[in-house]
Amino acid sequence: MCLLKRHSLPRAAKDRLVYLTDEALEITRRQMLAYPEGTIFRNSNGKPWTTDAINCGFLAVQMRMGKEQMAIREEMISDEDIAAFIPTLEKTM
User: Looking at the structure, do residues 2 and 27 belong to the same domain, yes or no?
Assistant: First the structure.
């Protein structure tokens, strides 16, 4: 369990309680030791993650999950089809 204090969440009206798995809690503790001040989750350059970077990461996971589900259903989509589809997507805010 992790308590996010109101002051660390600019738009939040209240403190937020977040339940974590044991693995997520261990990762969080390691990051807190590595970065005792400021943002604990950072990129390979030591800069805090941006909302766009987090969104891109989730989209990548969703794509991989979709490919796995298609393989289970014995449906196939080529990387070329995906590459052609990506430019048609609208940018997220």
Answer: yes
Range of the domain at 11: 1-45
Q: Indicate whether 19 and 40 sit together in one domain.
A: yes
Q: What is the pTM of this model?
A: 0.49
Instruction: Give yes or no: residues 36 and 64 share one domain.
Output: no
Distance CA 93, CA 88 (A): 16
Q: Once rounded to an integer, what is the mean pLDDT over residues 6-30?
A: 77
